[in-house]
Amino acid sequence: MITEHSVVVLSNDHLDYGLHAGDVGAVVHVYGEGKAYEVEFVDGDGTTIALLTLESSDVRPIETGELLDARHRA
Question: Dihedral (C-alpha) 21, 23, 24, 26: value to the nearest 10 degrees?
């Protein structure tokens, strides 16, 4: 189960916020025992890019062995 402070991976693009599937965020709140999550996405200096309420199908836990990647926002 995904809990608060978990690192999660975005499953779908959210282009209105400049986010793409595969971007990494941190869970700041869990709703309804995991039905939805409040997830914060930050850039390299820690500035919040987006704080989104996402359904459980929109994110997944980061897995052991996955590497984080850096890209410039469009």
Answer: -70
